[in-house]
Amino acid sequence: MSISKRPLILVTNDDGITSLGIRTLVELMTQLGDVVVVAPNSPQSGMGHAITMGEPLRLYKTDIFVDVDEYECSGTPVDCVKLARHYVLKDRAIDLVVSGINHGSNSSINVLYSGTMSAAIEGAVEGIPSIGFSLCDFREDAHFDHARDAILQITRQALENGIPKGTALNVNIPAFEGKPVKGIKICRQADARWRERFDKRVDPHGRNYFWMSGDFVNLDAEKASTDEWALENGYISIVPCQFDLTGYQAIAAISQWNLGNSLPV
Amino acid sequence: MSISKRPLILVTNDDGITSLGIRTLVELMTQLGDVVVVAPNSPQSGMGHAITMGEPLRLYKTDIFVDVDEYECSGTPVDCVKLARHYVLKDRAIDLVVSGINHGSNSSINVLYSGTMSAAIEGAVEGIPSIGFSLCDFREDAHFDHARDAILQITRQALENGIPKGTALNVNIPAFEGKPVKGIKICRQADARWRERFDKRVDPHGRNYFWMSGDFVNLDAEKASTDEWALENGYISIVPCQFDLTGYQAIAAISQWNLGNSLPV
Fold first, then answer.
1. In this structure, are residues A120 and A114 in contact, taking their beta carbons and an 8 Å threshold?
2. Strand A184-186 vs strand A192-202: parallel, antiparallel, or unpaired?
3. How far, in Å, CA of B86 to CA of B94, rounded?
4. How confident is the model at residue B179 (pLDDT cuts 50, 70, 90)?
C-alpha cells in the first residue's frame, strides 16, 4: 500500500526508453502522480501485441528521468506491462497505464500493428485504466509541445472517471503545424488498410532481400465519425479500443452454416 | 486470371514452415484448391500482429510439400500474408487465407498474442475470407487426425458462403483424447487473462534474466457461450474475430468527459 494519495502511473512506449516522446510523457505524468517507467531498451515499433516466449527477458534499472523509478527491458511493449504488473509493481496497485508518446500515427488500422497501443490494451486486459498517446509525426525530433495540455486534460479525466471496462483509449494528436489543435473528438476507428510495396534489392552476396513500405488507403465511406477525419481536420482523436474481438454481428450468419452437429450459441 | 476453377488458398502459420501443424493443413487444403504457402522460416509464436519495420525481409522458395508453390519468409506471420498478397500473389485473387494448424490453443485472450490468428486477421483486413486453426496441444508431435474432418467442413463452408466482412474465424480444436470431437460450437471470446510469473535466474556472467510463464485465469461469469466452455466440454469452438477494435459501447461515457472544446461523435 502506498502512503501517498498520488496515483501510481506506469509509463511505457514502443520507441524505446530514450525517445523524446516518452521523455515528454514522463514529464507530464510526474505532474499528476507517482511515476514508474518500464520501457523497451530498443525500438519496438510495429511489434503489435507480441510477447517474448522463446527467450529470456532482461530488466535493468536506469537513470534517465528525474524522481522516477525506471527500468529498461529487452522485450516488447506488452512484455514491459507484464513485467511491471507482475514483477516490478507486484505488490502495488497501478492506477493508470500510459504508453507513448509514439513518434507516428496509430490511428485506424495502425492500432493493430502498434506496440504503443498494444501496451495500453494489455493494461486494460489487466483491468487498469490505460491510454496510448501517439503523435502524427514520426520524426525523432518531433515537436510535442502543442500536445501537452490535451494529454494532461485527457489523463486527468481518465483518473477522475475511470475508463469503461474492457477498453483502452487510443489518442492520436495531429503533427504540429504552427497552431494549436482545434479540440478533441471522440471517434470510431476508420476502415483503412495499407497497400504494401516490396522494394527488392540484392545484397553483396547476391541474395535478394525486401524492404516493406506501403501506401495508406482510407476505405471509409462515412468519414466524419472516424479518427482519420478528426486528425485530417486538426482535431485530436480518441477511440476507445476493446480487446474482446468477438464479431457478434457475424455470429448469426455463421450459425446458418452446415457444420454437422453444431450447437447454437 | 487463373484458368483453374479451383480456389486459390494461401496457407501460413506461426510455428514455422516445417511444423507438423502446417503440413497437416497443407495436405487438407490441397483437397479443396490450389495451395500457395508463405510461412515463417522460424517459430513465431506469440508474435501477435507484429510486422518487420526496422530490417529487411528474406523470402526463399522451398520444396517441403507436394504440388504446392511454397516460400519461407524471415518475418512474422503478418509479414507472410503481406508478402503473399502484395508480392508473391500480386496478380492473382486469393480466395481464402488459412493459418495454422497452431500447436497450442488460441482461444479467449490468447487471440491477441497469437501469430496464427493475427495472420488470419490480416487476411480479413485485405478483404479475403480467412480462418485460423489451432489445436489445444502445444506438443511438437501433437495428434491432428481427429481435427481433419471438421477443418475440411468449416473450410468448405467458408468457401461456399464467404465469411462476414470485417471478421476472421478463430477455430480451436480440443486436444485428442482418444475419441472424436463432440461437434462444433459458434462462440464468443471468453473473458480471461494470464497471471504472469517471472522466474528470475542468474546467467554465468552474474546478470539477472527472467523467464516469463503464467497461469491462465478464466474471469467469465456466464461461461456457456464462450470458446473456453466449448473446448473444455469437447467441442470445437469458432469465434468470428473483428479488426475494428472500436468499443462503441464506451463512446457515450467518454463523450461526457470534460475535454474542453470537444466535438460530439
1. no
2. unpaired
3. 11
4. confident
| Pairwise CA distance, residues A36 & B42, whole Å | 35
Give the torsion sign (CA, A54, A55, A60, A66): negative
Instruction: Indicate which of A244, A248, A255, A261 best probes the interface with B, i.e. most B CBs within 10 Å of its own CB.
Output: A244
Nearest Cα residue to A73 out of A121, A22, A110: A22
Cis ω for the linkage preceding A3 (within 30 of 0): no
Annotated binding-site residue? B15: yes
Residue ranges per structural domain of chain A: 8-190+223-255
Q: Select B8-190+222-255's CATH number: 3.50.50.60, 3.40.1210.10, 1.10.8.420, 3.40.50.720.
A: 3.40.1210.10
CA–CA–CA angle B233, B237, B241 (5° rounding) = 145
**Cβ B56–A243 below 8 Å, yes or no?**
no
Q: Is B209–A56 a contact, with Cβ atoms under 8 angstroms apart? A: yes
Segment B7-25 shows an average pLDDT of 98
CATH number of the domain at A8-190+223-255, out of 1.25.40.20, 3.40.1210.10, 2.60.40.740, 3.30.420.100? 3.40.1210.10
Q: CA–CA separation, B257 vs A161, rounded Å?
A: 8
Q: Percent of chain A, pLDDT > 90?
A: 92
Q: CB distance from B89 to chain A under 8 Å?
A: no
pLDDT digits (tens, 9 = 90+) for A17-26: 999 999 999 9
- Minimal-distance CA residue of chain A relative to B49: A48
**CB-based burial, B47-56: b 16+ in 10 Å, e otherwise:** bbbbbbeeeb
Q: What is the mean pLDDT of residues B106-126?
A: 98
Interatomic CA distance for residues A9 and A37, integer angstroms: 8
Task: List, as one string, the DSSP characters of A177-210.
Answer: -SS----EEE-B---EEEEEEEEEEE-TTS-EEE
Task: Find the residue in A nearest to B15 (Cα).
Answer: A54
With a cut of 80, say whether residue B226 has pLDDT above it. Answer: yes
Question: What confidence tens digit (pLDDT) does each residue in A47-101 have?
Answer: 999 999 989 999 999 999 998 999 999 999 999 999 999 999 999 999 999 999 9
